[in-house]
Amino acid sequence: MATTPAAPVEALAAVHEAEGRLLGVVAGFDDEFVAGPSQLPGWTVGHLITHLARNADSHTRRTAAAIDGVMVDQYPGGMIQRTSEIDAGAARSARALHADLADACGRLLAAWDGVPDYAWANVSTSWTWGPGSPTGTGRRPSSRPACPRCGPDQQRA
């Protein structure tokens, strides 16, 4: 007899704590700092913060799909959508970046807190590798997000 997986209560609590720490750090950033370079080639700190917010939105969308038992792409427009959204948001003020990140993280945590036990075992599509990607086209299903800087065969730890 199969059992329904329970919500990862301890992991969710840790994520809530980590979000609080992240938002606390980002709240200390000023406009000059977010306009400056990050350690990612070609990205400012604003790019990085926008990436975190859009990534959270993508996981909120995937969570809703997993609850419904539906497969969805992390970014419906693939790498092109992901890149354009990050570029479009990168030059905002530190205050606007913080507010966007706080809102996106809040939506994600609310979505995760509301996942019924049965849905924790469901899988969604992790990434759409479309035109302009290192691998061409096609989907790679995964329960762990691919590392966009490393390519589809490398996953985040």
Q: Can you walk through the features of this model?
A:
With 157 residues, the protein is mainly alpha-helical. The chain has a domain at 46-117: Four Helix Bundle (Hemerythrin (Met), subunit A). Helix content is 51%, strand content 9%. It contains five helices and four strands. The strands form two sheets. A two-stranded antiparallel ribbon has the order 1-2. The chain has a two-stranded antiparallel sheet with strand order 3-4. A hairpin with a 3-residue loop joins strand 3 and strand 4. Helix 1 runs antiparallel to helix 5 (94-113) and helix 3 packs parallel to helix 5. The longest helix is centred in the middle third of the chain and has 24 residues, at 45-68. It is globular and about 50 Å long. Residues 128-157 have low confidence and may be disordered.
What brief labels describe this structure?
mainly alpha; two-stranded antiparallel sheet; globular; Four Helix Bundle (Hemerythrin (Met), subunit A); 157 residues; 4 strands; two-stranded antiparallel ribbon
Which class of the domain at 46-117 in CATH terms? Mainly Alpha
Query: Nearest-angstrom radius of gyration?
Result: 16 Å
Distance N terminus to C terminus? 32 Å
What is the CATH topology of the domain at 46-117? Four Helix Bundle (Hemerythrin (Met), subunit A)
The CATH architecture term of the domain at 46-117 is Up-down Bundle
- Model regions low in confidence, pLDDT < 50 over at least 5 residues: 128-157
What is the percent of helical residues?
A: 40-55%
Strand tally: 4
